[in-house]
Amino acid sequence: MKLKLAPGLAIKKSPISGKGCFATKTFEQRKKIAEYTGERISDFEALKRARGRRHLRICDIDGRFSLDGARGGNGTHYINHSCDPNAYMKTMHGHVLFFARRDIKAGEEITIDYEQTLLPDSRRCHCGAQNCRRTINKV
Predict the structure, then answer these.
(1) pLDDT tens digit string along 39-64?
(2) Does residue 32 belong to any structural domain of this protein?
(3) Which residue has the higher pLDDT, 54 or 77?
(4) Running DSSP on this structure, what letter comes out for residue 72?
C-alpha cells in the first residue's frame, strides 16, 4: 500500500537518521505543518511493539493511547529528532499536531525534540546541532 503523504511533505534519505520528513513548501513560523496519523493503540500495545525495535514510529497521545505511524501514517512518522528543532509537537483534543518553530523553507528537513521516547535513555543523538545533548531523551 502506497503511503499517502500530508500536503507539503516529502520523505527522503536524512543526514540525521534513515529517512526523514522534508518540506516541499514554506511553512511559516507558528503555522501548522501537519497532523500525526496512524493506528490508534493502547500504551500497553505501544510498549509491546517498541520492544527490540531500532526505529519507532509510535507517538503517545494522552498516557493511555498512542498512534503507530508505521501503520496508516502520513509521512509525519519520519520526522526525526534534533536538539535544535525547527518544529514542535502539540497534542490537542486527542490530535497530535506539528507546528513550525520558525520559518521552514522548502527542502529543509522537519525536526522536533523528542524529549521522552520509548527508546532507552542511552540512545545516542546524531542531529549534528551545535547544542546537541548527545542523547535523544532528555535525562
Answers:
(1) 999 999 998 988 877 677 888 899 89
(2) yes
(3) 77
(4) T
Domain count, the chain: 1
Give the Cα separation of 30 and 13 in Å (integer).
26
Q: Is 133 within the bounds of a domain?
A: no
- 20 to 15, 59, 69, 92, 105: CA distances (angstroms): 8, 16, 13, 24, 15
Grid cell in block for residue 74: 502520513
Write out the DSSP string of 105-127. Answer: -TTPBPEE--BS-SS-TTPBP--
Cβ atoms of 90 and 112 closer than 8 Å: no
CATH classification of the domain holding 75: 2.170.270.10
State how far the Cα of 17 lies from the Cα of 126, in Å rounded to an integer.
7
Q: How many residues does the chain have?
A: 139
Name the one residue in this structure whose C-alpha cell is 546537541: 132
Per DSSP, the three-state class of 104 is strand
Whether 128 is in a domain gets the answer: no
- In degrees and rounded to multiples of 5, residue 97 shows phi and psi of -120, 150
Window from 33-37, 83-87, 105-109, 125-129 with minimum mean pLDDT: 125-129
